[in-house]
What we know:
Helix content of chain A: under 10%
Shape of chain A: globular
Oligomer: heterodimer
Mean pLDDT of chain B: 92
Low-confidence stretches of chain B: none
Structural class of chain A: mainly beta
Largest interface: A-B, 27 and 26 residues
Number of strands of chain B: 11
Largest sheet of chain A: 6 strands, mixed
Order of helices and strands of chain B: EEEEEEEEEEE
Low-confidence stretches of chain A: none
Radius of gyration of chain A: 13 Å
Number of strands of chain A: 11
Amino acid sequence: SQQGEEDPQALSIQEGENATMNCSYKTSINNLQWYRQNSGRGLVHLILIRSNEREKHSGRLRVTLDTSKKSSSLLITASRAADTASYFCATASSGGGADGLTFGKGTHLIIQP
Amino acid sequence: DTAVSQTPKYLVTQMGNDKSIKCEQNLGHDTMYWYKQDSKKFLKIMFSYNNKELIINETVPNRFSPKSPDKAHLNLHINSLELGDSAVYFCASSRGSANYGYTFGSGTRLTVV
C-alpha cells in the first residue's frame, strides 16, 4: 500500500524563489528519503533523514521530519530552472527496512525562468 | 561508468510475447530491486534480492520472474505480456536494506501493443 503522500501534486514558481514540498506518511518509519526524477530519467537520491533526526541540510536542500505528525518537508532555496523535476518522498519502515522503500506519488515542480 | 545500468531502454512488443530486462550494478551493493512506475508516476516495489537471495516478492503476477545470477545482476523476465504490463520498470541497488539510499537505473519503458 502507498505510504507517502506528497503535497502539492504540482508546484510552479519563479526562478530564485524557494520551493517547499510536503510529505505525510502513515506508519512508523526507520528513515525518510527524498528523490528527484527528471523527465524520462531514473530517480536520484537527494537526502536521507533518520527517525531520530529533526532537520538535515544538503547544499540548497533542507529537510525536516516531524515523527509526531508523521510528516516531512523538503525546501529548495534559491530555485533554478534545472530544479524542474518530480520530487518523491520514500519511507523505510521501522522493521529494519526489509520491506524496501515505499514511495509517494510525487510533486511535480516547475521553475519558471 | 554507469552505476546501475538497465537494458534495453525501450521495449515495444506484442501481447503474448516473452521478454527480459537486464540490470547490472557496479557499486558493490548487496541489495537490488525492481520497481514499476505506472503512467501516473506511482512507483511500486516488485522484488528485492539480497546477495542473490529473494527478500521481497510483492503481489505481482507469477508471469514476472526475477533472476539474480550474482549479486551484481538482477534480471526480470516477463512471460505472456499483457497490455497492462506497459509501464516504466526501474532497477535499483542499495548498500544494504532500505536504511541506505538507493541508486536507480535510468529505466526501461515497456510498451505492449
